[in-house]
Amino acid sequence: MRLYSLSVLYKGDPKVHLLKAAYDVSTFNFFQRSSVQEFMTFTSQLIAERSALGTRASVKEQEYLCHVYVRSDGLAGVVIADTEYPQRVCFTLLDKVLDEFSRQVSKMEWPSGSPATISYSALDGYLSKYQVQTPGT
Question: Cys-Cys with 118: which of 11, 59, 97, 113 at CB 3.0–4.6 Å?
Answer without folding.
Answer: 113
